[in-house]
Specification:
By secondary structure, the chain is α+β, with helices and mostly antiparallel strands. The protein is built from 22 helices and 11 strands. A hairpin with an 8-residue loop joins strand 8 (134-136) and strand 9.
Length: 431
Amino acid sequence: MKNLAPLINAALSKELHALIYLLGYCSQQGSFKVYAVGGFVRDLFLGRENRDMDLVVEGSAVDFAKSLLKVMPGTLRCYERFGTATLVLSKGIVFDMVTARKEFYAAPGALPAVEQSTLKNDLFRRDFTINTMACALNTGDFGRFYDYFGGREDLEKGIIRVLYKLSFVDDPLRIIRAIRFEQRFDFVIEEDSLALLTKAINNRLLEKVSKERLYNEVRLIFREPRPSKILARLDELNLFKEIFPRSVFSQEIKSRLQRLEQVLTEISPKEHGKTWNYLVLFLSALFFDLAEHDIKFLCHLMRLKRKERLDVLSIRENIPFILLQLQAHPISSSRLYFLLEDLPDEGLVLAVALASQPHIRGHILFYRDHLMEKKPSITGKDLLEAGIKPGPVFNKVLIKLHEAVLEGKVSGKEEELGFVKLLIKEQCAEE
């Protein structure tokens, strides 16, 4: 296939299709040569739409990005020093633009020095052959396919292959990336590349990479559809212990992660307008059996943000008690609510995966689907406006009101106010 225009026309949504043609028109008008490269082209052949596009610009990527902003409103970040720019549009569409360049590595694991170059030289600096394919976007040359390094053949064979012998030496993070792609696509790492990868592991090249860069790469594992497969492969290659010291990838952990992955195919955060932090979710499952001080050590090692660390610790501390309490059947709605209200949403998902009995799972899903957002219509401000003065019983009354709402005893603002006034009267009579 010499031209990918028919594939682009068939595989992409109308929205992305129109943006790519507009992008090509802008490049032609501005005398830039622009190519879609890497994952976008790879995923075209795999029948997947990739909304995070890597673009190589012959000319200045920064100047081209600035010209695009005039016709594609979005958020633009430019890095003049590196000749790169990122334009973020709506609905998850991202254009990552780089000036065509060569890279030189002064030492293993070091960030590369770069200089402006051509498309072919830019593609040669990439990680694997399946990510070296390119497609011209300029109007006059739209869709022309470039495959200097046999990427399409390796894609058809299901092979992950590096471009040169020092690839893992120059960037040891490619070790983790190779395993991620291998497991994501159900490919195999080509024999010679696997030998180079194994040698890089045995030479402990990942130790030459800063912890920030290492764990930024590790985070991507937990955005994959099946992290358990990647972690199992890391363990096979004696890398799991290096990345997650004080932890062992046991069969029990593998089964727990697989149960979690299954749950994620059954429920969605979008039902509640929320998104999950998959790092927190999977690390909570991965570290579930560890002592608190080991979890804190690993969270620090992985440079987790404060909230991420607190959520992982909260989930690990509270789920065993919660699951024990949920064995009761039946359980009142108010009891269920106050038992689960402080658990992060990621904890609810993990609790579903860990539930040993169907009725426990049912309790958690009932809370999530019916009780989580069920709160009184009136607030403390409404009570003040109704003439109810703050005092020792004020918070108790609000809690009892919430319980009544959860149990379905009162409904609507008028009934709630009446219920509160009755509670106040009873409290005063007791005093």
